[in-house]
C-alpha cells in the first residue's frame, strides 16, 4: 500500500539541517533532539532510526520545488535522483535588505520566523497610512504570492501582485477595496503579464475610509505526475495512520530542547541480573533480555504518547504484543484496546520491571538529577508561575498555555533575537529547564540596556543561569547573570542574539 502524505504532515515533519521533507531514508533522531533526513544523516553517527521510516517506505512525496511549478510525486528512493536535476531557484527577501540566495521553499519558513505579521493566512490586509509601503507573503495551495502596496506623495496608492511561480503558471488576481459602507472592485490583474499593478486615486479614497484590501486569486488547475503504474491511496490503513499520528506528536517533544527524550533508567547493581532486557533501535519496543547496566527505555505510551507518567499509571501499564513485538501502552489505552480485542497478548509492567520502585530515573527536564519513581513525578511535573502576584502551580506541559491565556505573554526559547530596527522597549519571558528568565530591553539612540532576572521553580535551589550576548558577527559583547545590567553599543548592528544556559552549584 502506498500513501500520499498530506501537506500538513510534510510541512510539520522536516529535517532540522536542510529544512526539506523527511522524504529520504534513513530518518534519524539524535540525543540533542534534532532530526535528520537521509540527505544529512551519516552511517555510524550515533543517530537512532525513527519509526517515521515505516511511513516513508510506503509514502508518496511532493517535490520540494513544488512552489516553482514541479508537480512530480516521488517515492523515497526516487527523491535524491530527482533533486539532482530539479535544482530550484533562489530569491531575495523583499523585507530584508541584502538577504538573497534563499531557496523559494524556505521563504515560508523565513516569513513565519522573521516576519510573522507579514505572512497572510487570509486573502486580506489593512493599509497602514503611517507606513508608505509594505509587502506580504500569501500562499494558495502550491503557489506563493508577494502582495505589496506603496503610498505616493500625492496620496495615490499603488497595489501590486507578484506570483513567485514560473511565468507558465496562468494566474489572475482581483483586488477589492472594503469600506464601511460598500465593497469597491478595484481591478483584475493577469499576473502573467508585465502590467501587474494598478493605482487607487486619492480622490476615490475618503479620509474616514477603512483601508482594508481583499483579493481573490484564480489559478489554472494543475496535476501531479507519479511514475510507474501503481495507484496510491489517500487513506492509510489503521496501523499506519496511528503511527503517523504518533510521530506528529513525537516531533513536538523532539523539537523541545528542554526535554531529555527518551527517558533513561539507571539500574542499581543489585538488580542488574534480575531485570535485563534489550530495546529496539527506535526504542519503541522490547526485543529480549540481555546484560547491561544502563538502559534507554521508551516509557511513553505507544498510543497516547503520554510523557508524564505518574507512578500508578506506570505500574499499571502493559506491554502489548503487536506483530511479534511488545509495545508499551498505558493502562487507560490498554483498557480501551482490550475492550475491542480480548484475544490480544500482553504482559504487565510489574512482571517485567519487578523492582521498578528501586530504579532511578533521569529528570526529563534535563536538570541532571535522578529520582526514584515515587519522587520523580512531583519533581518534574509542577512549577510555580513566576509572574508577580500569580503564584499558580501549573504542570510543565501547560505553562505555555498559561502564559498565553492568563498573562497574554509568549515564552521564547533559550536563544532569543532582539531586532534593533524598531525603537521600542520590551520584556521577554523565556523558559529554561526548571526556571524562567525575564529579559528587559531598553533601547536608546546608540546603545541598549539589558536586565536579566531569574525566577526559580520551588523545587530547584542550586541552579544558576548565565546569558551570553552576541552581535551580528557572532562576537561575544557581554555576559549576564541574575540581577545584572549590561549596556551594549548598537553601532551598525541591526539585531543581537541572547543565548541562555544553566549550570549547577557543586
TrEMBL record:
It comes from the Eukaryota. It comes from Psylliodes chrysocephalus. The lineage of its organism: Eukaryota, Metazoa, Ecdysozoa, Arthropoda, Hexapoda. This is E3 ubiquitin-protein ligase.
